[in-house]
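This part of the workshop introduces the protein records we will be handling. As an example, a complete record with its sequence and its structure tokens follows.
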Amino acid sequence: MNSIRRQAAVPAKALAWERRDDESAPAFIAFSVYRDLGPTRSIDAAWRTTQTGQNRGKRAPSAWEGWSSRFDWVERAAAYDAHIERIGLEARQKALRAATEADTKRRIQNARATQGAGFKLIEKAKLEEITALEARKMLKEAAKLIEVGAKNELLELARAGDEQRTQAATTEPGLIDDETELMRRLSMGGMGATEGRYG
């Protein structure tokens, strides 16, 4: 004989603002009207929303007062208000996170574009057509673009809390912030090592 007893499934506990087992349909409908009026609700106001014509200006009947007391309208409505506020707060936080992430992504893209502009300035330079002074001035301008872009990118990555990507960016080949190194690579035939990242 099987001695294992199957436990009956325990029904989920009803939420405070849902219908109670001992609450009649008319009582719950009345509570729902009251509940949905929001924090400024009142029993009389809830009653009036269900009435038309001459009855709209009258006070709620005693039955509504009795239901309110018996079925804890005030406490249940307050729980419903807190629930709605929590949902709204979560939605606002989600929207803020999405906006922040999008803004961070845009700033990182701008930072990388700045670096790319520096590298392209060097790659497109025709050294045989400019003087040494002009070449050095161009290199300084390019190096500045690369340096500013790299620093801004690392700053945004750090702000985003992405330590792994921050570390990778600081050690990635092709990130050049030294003018002497720029000139050395240029003399060796261009900046091909940088094209994969910024080309």
About this structure: The first helix runs from residue 25 to 35. The radius of gyration is 35 Å. The CA atoms of residues 89 and 95 lie 10 Å apart. The helical segments are 25-35, 43-49, 62-70, 73-123, 132-159, 163-171, 179-187, 195-198.
